[in-house]
Amino acid sequence: MPPKPAEKPHPATKKGTVKHAVAVDADVKTSNLMRLRRIEGQIRGLQKMVEEDRYCPDILMQVASVQEALKGVSRELVRNHLTHCARRALKGTDAQASEAIDELIAVWSKHTA
How does 26-43 read in b/e, with b if 16+ C-beta sit within 10 Å? Predict the structure, then answer.
């Protein structure tokens, strides 16, 4: 029986290179970019509020708004990663699946802390 050809490494798990998503829904990407631009504007607004010595509770309300907006972006990124990258890795070799699980646990630990 001929030797089994070596599997190509999963594009998102190549070591020593910049990782890229396996697939990203164009509408989700556009939505996330719009959200991030809006958040960027909110951050500039926060800087201005601090410079102007605005009332602390007003600034804190805006900080909470930014945090919620970032959580929304995070949810969409997690959804995309699980739908495409992680699913593909989990269907791959045992090593790819193990690496994907370790990566998910590491990200989840940092994300929920």
Answer: eeeeeebeeeeeebeebe
